[in-house]
Specification:
Number of domains: 1
Shape: globular
Order of helices and strands: HHEEHHEEHEHHHHHHH
Structural class: alpha/beta
Helix content: 25-40%
Largest sheet: 5 strands, mixed
Strand order of the largest sheet: 1-5-3-4-2
């Protein structure tokens, strides 16, 4: 069988990608990634990969042992991604699916693990399932570490940037991963009465027209079923029962450059992800020069998602 030059080029490209990928790190120790990361250790955390053994009095001779492959602009169909958190709400996702900008895939600033778990952007992932059947591609930064290793690495990095952790989302909505979310009568009630929908932007006429355009209630039931199947496959097949609580998940802010910055550090190997691990050193200021007292105050804040959802509401109303 003949193979064209273009086909050969594509095969070699895919093989090169496979060779570059950093799978599970042998000897990975999650206890080496403090939770939470102390404010005075943030600078050390972000650079000690270049000095794995600081007690030996010399700089690390091998700076490549902590390098992790990162694929910028990775494109993965929504239907091939798995959730990494236990709560995704159907009312929010259904409302967002009315806005093409929020539910047609594309670059959502997400981080994706090597084994195709999505970190952050879960409601846009769910909205994309509802609008497109999961066929649209989600574009994000793919870090070639499995989800169980990526979470502690990025959680500490989020702490280093001083990002407050997110608590469990407020109630009053229906979790996609429950049996009730697949009940056609429950979905019908959501559409006709606004149950589980945010009253600030619920419009029965607009919602009914939208649901019809995406295939009706049966299409929503199918989309929820696919998301539940993805959840059952998460964490190596153990499901979301193995997922950390929301307050233990990483918080990175793409708009602040966190994702781009941590990607560069992982590519360079400055974060100490693999053994031998060096000890974290205390410093006089947090990463970026922020005073430690200020960083502690920031970290203690509770994140509210109301501002984000307010922006989505304006898009839906428009």
């Amino acid at each position: 069988m003949k193979i064209t030059r273009k086909q050969l080029k594509n095969v070699l490209k895919e093989e090169a990608k496979k060779m570059l990928r950093e799978k599970a790190i042998s000897g990975f120790d999650p206890t080496e990634f403090p939770n939470p990361l102390p404010a005075d250790q943030t600078k050390s955390y972000m650079q000690k990969g270049w000095d794995d053994s600081p007690d030996d009095g010399r700089t690390d001779d091998k700076k490549t042992d902590d390098v992790v492959d990162v694929e910028l602009g990775a494109s993965v169909p929504a239907g091939e991604l798995m959730p990494s958190q236990t709560s995704v709400f159907l009312g929010k996702a259904l409302g967002m699916s009315m806005v093409p900008k929020l539910s047609s895939g594309g670059d959502i600033g997400a981080v994706i693990s090597e084994d195709n778990h999505i970190l952050d952007g879960h409601h846009r992932w769910a909205a994309t399932h509802l609008r497109t059947g999961g066929s649209a591609n989600i574009i994000g930064t793919k870090v070639m570490l499995p989800i169980t290793q990526l979470i502690p690495v990025l959680r500490a990095a989020g702490d280093a940037y001083g990002n407050p952790r997110k608590g469990e989302p407020e109630g009053g909505d229906l979790n996609v991963f429950t049996a009730e979310a697949k009940n056609p009568e429950v979905i019908r009630e959501m559409i006709e009465t606004g149950k589980y929908m945010d009253p600030d932007f619920y419009d029965r006429g607009k919602l009914e027209a939208h649901v019809k355009s995406i295939g009706g209630i049966d299409a929503i039931v199918s989309a929820v079923g696919r998301m539940q199947e993805a959840a059952a496959s998460a964490y190596g097949g153990s499901g979301l029962g193995n997922a950390p609580p929301r307050k233990e998940m990483p918080v990175l802010e793409p708009k602040k450059g966190n994702v781009k910055n941590v990607a560069k550090r992982l590519q360079k190997g400055t974060i100490d992800v693999a053994p031998p691990y060096g000890g974290l050193e205390a410093g006089g200021a947090a990463h970026g020069g922020e005073a430690i007292a200020s960083r502690r105050q920031t970290m203690a804040q509770k994140v509210s998602e109301k501002k984000t959802y307010a922006r989505w509401k304006r898009l839906i109303k428009g």
